[in-house]
Amino acid sequence: MNVYDTAHNLANAIKESQEYKDYAALKEKIDANPELSGMMKDFESKQLDLQTRQMVGEEVTEDAQKTVQELYAIVMKDPSAAAYLQAQMRFSIMMNDVYKILGDAMGIGNPQ
Prior knowledge:
Number of helices: 5
Helix content: over 70%
Strand content: under 5%
Order of helices and strands: HHHHH
CATH class: Mainly Alpha
């Protein structure tokens, strides 16, 4: 069994998954709307910054948390943005499951 061939097969299976197809289609829809795309990028940037600060143990201010929560509420009012975030979450869960399967097979990663 060639590892590289198997990796390519896995990549193709992921591309053919409904989770990826939904995510890619909704991302394309978001990207076609400059205003919505900008709003999503702003939200994702602020959310990532907040999560990064939490992960490294930095104190996160109430204002920063409130800003992200307010942006989330605004984003979720748009049906396309809400669908995109849901599809992104489903795709992310699938990818995390794949990483866990690979890690478990090799005895690496976080035991759960």
